[in-house]
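Late entry, evening session. Most of the bench is empty. Finally got around to the prediction I had been postponing all week. Sequence below, unchanged from the version circulated by S.P.
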Amino acid sequence: MKLKKIIVLVLVYILSMSASYATKLPEPIEKYIKKEVPNTRVRFDGLITTPNGTNYLPVFPAATNRAATAVVKETYPANKKFSQYPDVILFENNFALLKLIKNKQGRLTVTASKNIPPVIKAGVLPQDLLVPPGMILPDDMKIVLGNLKIPLISSPVNNFFQQDSISKSKPVYKKITPLPELKNKTLLITTLESSSVNVVPTDSAEPKFVLKLNGLPRFVEPVSNDNYIMVATSGKTFIDVADINQSVLAKKIDISAIPSEIVLTKDRGTAYVSASNEEAIFVIDIHSMALLEKIKITGIPKHMYLDEESGLIGYIDKTSGNVYTLTTAMPYINKRIAKVGNVSKLLVSDNKVYLLSRTENKLSVYDVELQEMIFDIDTVVKPIDMMQFGRKLYILSGTNKLQIFNMDDFTMEIAITIADKGFTKDLVKVPDSNLVLITDIAGNNYYVFDVTKNRVVQTVPTALNINDLKIMNVSVK
């Protein structure tokens, strides 16, 4: 994975004119491609990537009355199937695929013009295509560009993509030996000191790369099996989508409001995004990276939480302090549950809303149907985050305590001391494990907590004061 390039390119917001729609390949051709080479990925702008990293550009016919089929009409070299990776594939309805190759100077291009049939040169590339950095095309393929800004071979330079320099901090920590569950993973870490997103391998205490965003990050979320990162920054009305495999800023999803929080469905195929300046929740399809719907709601949401099992969203209206739920299946039902004080965390489970009050040091339980509180209990001072494992709630306080609440009999089972000093802030689940990372905003470390052993099993030093942390199931190369 060439993550370094993506880190550079996320610095530059040069794709603000990207189309908001997704390019769809003809269905028979997409099926043919994936049958010939299983696990081939078709990006939302049409770029085709095989498991070995070979890329193809789709070229749509200028005009055709023929239905799309997967019948191959011509290839270069001749008589090849897609699984043999030819430079050119022309289908019966004049839809075509052009393989990206490198020329002698190392720049991305396609095969020599003489190998490309004229009917392909009269076609058109997807107009929302994200052009791979440094790519050039033969001079007689100007028509195929449409409105895309891709230099031809005779162009002196390709200035469409600009790269900024990356400053790398000096190593000061020893190499970390991560637990097996954290091996070959990557952390995306933000701090309160800068607008950067630090990319930290789990075997290191220091960032390997830095994403310097055009504003303070509101959220950073890996999606699509960590093939993409969705990023929202303060004051911007769009969400940037970065493609990790292609090392490019792939798309902007403009929601015409300032995105503030994001939650994902259990299958991670749909994202729900709240805005800091609108009474709405925006629905985004992760596969196409397109805005599907804008759901009008009561209040401006904060502390948004999606119950993966029921699909029920809970949130606090930041203006009134009212607690609401929203069904994610139509007809959307937006229900006021209660009015509360200073809530630090909200969680929805089993048709109940669990609320932490940082000022009152309480956990309160509300019944969604009854729309009233059915239970409350004191917590340790400054409860700030909570997470569900099975039928237990793990409640984290800023005083370095972790309490375990039994959701069946509503009892507080145990309080565990995480550290002697610091300010513990967030619980972050390690995928497919019984481990949770506990961040410390006042110290340069994070703790690995095992919920089966109910204890910290590793303390990891970092070069950063962690404000927010996300885990990617990929390693930085």
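Two things to note before I forget:
DSSP finds four helices and 36 strands in the chain.
Confidence is low (pLDDT under 50) at residues 6-20, 155-169.
Will write this up properly tomorrow.
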